[in-house]
Amino acid sequence: MWRDKHPRKGLYFLTSASEDAKPAEVGDDTEPLARFVARSDSTGDVHLLWYGEKLGEPTGSEHNLYYGRWREADPAATAPELVMPGIYPVMTVKPSGDVMAFSWQPSEDGGRVYSRFRPAKGGEASGENRFQDAVVIAAVPQVTPIVRAFTSGERWLFVWLGQYGADRRDFRLEGAYSDDNGTSWTRFALDDLRGFDVASLQVAADAKQHIVLVVTARDRSANDDSKQNVFALHSADAGTTWSSAVALRRPTPVEQEGGTEDQDPLALFSARNPSVAFGATPGEVLAVWEDWRGIRAGIYAAVSRDYGKTWSTSVSPLMALAGANLGLRYEPNAIFPSDAGYSVVAERYSDDTLEKKRLVRLDIPSSRVVAIAEGAGASPWPGDTEVVKQALRERATAYWNAIKEGEFSDTYEYLDPFFRARFPLDRYLATMGRIKYSQADVEGVRIAGSIAEVSTRIRASIPEFRMPTTGELVSRPEREVTVKNRWLWIDGRWLKEFRVESQDVVFTRY
pTM of this prediction? Predict the structure, then answer.
């Protein structure tokens, strides 16, 4: 399913991979835009919800949600139904074909979250399976695109990230459930993550009232630059009560050595975009996410054997490919169970510019899940031993010796691959040589995970030269200073992170 603007703006639906297959246009004259969802039921019907910008609708809104249905027995989709105003098409469908659609709508006194129920029973002519009247779920000043609808057993659930306060920075992950097909709703809040800026949310729910939520979130209240992390919450009663939020990443005792008393060393590295699924074995849940603890992006996992109450976390990436960066999208849910284990639809970056990527499939056999549960594997971090520190001192010394000698082709090879992917050698050489170094002594090394801070005492001067843009003569006398540089453990060796000091710009993404 996709939205296209050629030959005209429309929403197209294709059910066959055959080269001769022709897509059906299901958007009609609704002027569809690029947000839509598709859900199937047990009869083979596919239910579609999208938002469009058709003018002159009776809602008076510029943007509205529309519903359509495709049946295998009748390839022609039903005519679009105007559902309600909105810009976030959210819908869930039960196996029976019952549909619940949701929308947030602004109002003069804030905003409201609404639902509309569409029963599967009855015929088109009777009107019994048209959408029923809209119901107000909750008053919410503003919502983000982080919205999810799902069912657990016979219960309907809707979860959203609300924004409160004058500056809209009071983030609240909250939701509501209904046991009477949307006639009434009971609201709940996941207060453990109140104030956390949530960037993604995925759900696994079964018919026996088990629910697991996994989210990307970061607490911006104390530090606006804090790294994203991944958390899980679970419910054993279809959302009536919820567990505390737990971080899925946990350092091993060896990894903890790189941190401080009040900081987990993993907090130095981003983790995001978790996906989650129940396995074939009752109680088994597998969560996967994109993790930058190795400076390169990798896919890590956590497994639960008790429906999300407790977790065992992998200490190494699911697939270790030298020079590769593997990530996940924030949506849709990218993990799928099978009899042999699980499959994950990941993204592999084409190179270290991190600009282009392609979809790849990662298969996780049951034996790998068992290994995660048993804590097998080795951390990608080099450790914080004296042997490792001495090796880094020697490498940093070799780098500074090459700098002193003006061997900049050699120093280029010491720099991180993300910089080198964007700046070829000739461009780098054109920027070097203005500063003359007469002394460089490595004085200290501090390692935290795959990051090291190296302190070096240098003596340097800038011989007189003429600025090419202004013609001004510039020079600086020799002076002695201590500089601190960051070195990164990448692909089994230490590389210096290139930083544009004047702009505080780096090319890494961890």
Answer: 0.92
